[in-house]
Amino acid sequence: MSKPLRVGMIGYGFMGRAHSNAYHQVNYFFDREYRPVLQACCARNEEKIRAFAEKWGYASYETDWRKLIERDDIDLIDIGSPNNTHHDIVLAAAEAGKMILCEKPLAMNTAEAEAMVAAVEKAGVPNMVWFNYRRVPAISLARQLIDEGRIGRPFHYRATYLQDWTIATDVPQGGAALWRLDAKVAGSGVTGDLLAHSIDTAEWLNGPIRSVVAKTETFVKERLHQETGKVEPVEIDDACMFLAVFENGSMGTFESTRYARGRKNYNTFELNGDRGSVFFDLEDPQYLDYFRYADPETGKKVEDHLTGWSRIHVTNFEHPYMDKYWVPGCTIGYEHTFINALADFLESLETGQPVQPDFRSGLRTQKVCDAVLESARTGQWVEIT
User: Is 176 a domain residue?
Assistant: First the structure.
């Protein structure tokens, strides 16, 4: 018999929809002891949150997140609201003993993230950051190949995350739809919004980053602010590039921008080692490209006519997560990464083993983001501590 897990969702935008869909779908595909119940959702705009509750099947709604946390009929708080709200909500939810799931980036800065980690660890509440790209089956397969020794000693890691939606100078900043362009709400631009994903994936696959040197650029210096009605300075980074040295000695390059004309959500990585390489492109997510050079057990070069790049269609039952969905050859989509992440969280409640990435892992990513921004400000290499 399943156990109800009563969810309180904060936010009704892009992530609110993605998370709500996962709560609806997870038990259809994964056999889990806990069954999410959409108990309540919350946002300041009553008209919009009422409509969201009706559409997604939430039993009730609130317009004050504090009231949501105070409710005895809520077990889990899911934070899908803008970045500047995360800290206060987490501290209150942890004190109330609620489980907490939080969108990325975890916080506005390292100091906030450290306080959030301290709060959830003191309270002993289960927690997770929604770095959903770890749950793309092809990326999980890349991690499996690395763990199996098929890449060997790593030399280079390179990541790109490119979009083009803010190129026009008449795109405003601020408000419900464009808060990511407002530094007071977002904290940073592409560094926290896009590179946080790239950094989390990189450290999951290739280990901790030791030091960085970075350059950022804001191409459009002023934009109309939707809330004040005034043209104000743009303080977020439109583009960021940085070099990294990993603790394992490998070198990394990272690039992110919202000014790459024609790129909508071009998120790629490539890892090169002495025994092989892997490459992934989120805009073609059902594939993982793998180059086999040496045997993972002996380390000796494979001497046959099949050596070369191979494209793996990651839809077979033996691939990560794929035995839960359709027959081989049938792909799954972006929304399934949230279902997979939620399934792993629910499993952690059964086993008692903390799920990853948890808040401490999110703190680690926040430290790298802050180091990148500090390096861009000073022009110097910055060590990650």
Answer: yes
Torsion of Cα atoms, 299 then 301 then 303 then 304, to 10°: 90
Entry pTM: 0.96
pLDDT tens track for 130-170: 999 999 999 999 999 999 999 999 999 999 999 999 999 99
Give yes or no: residues 214 and 293 share one domain: yes
Same structural domain for residues 119 and 138?
no
Which residues are within 8 A (CB) of 330 and not within 5 positions of it... i.e. 6 or more apart? 315
**Whether residues 204 and 216 fall in one domain:** yes
**255 shares a domain with 202:** yes
Q: Are residues 55 and 107 in the same domain?
A: yes
Query: Which residue, 35, 33, 37, 2, is CA-closest to 351?
Result: 33
Residue numbers of the domain that contains 372: 133-378
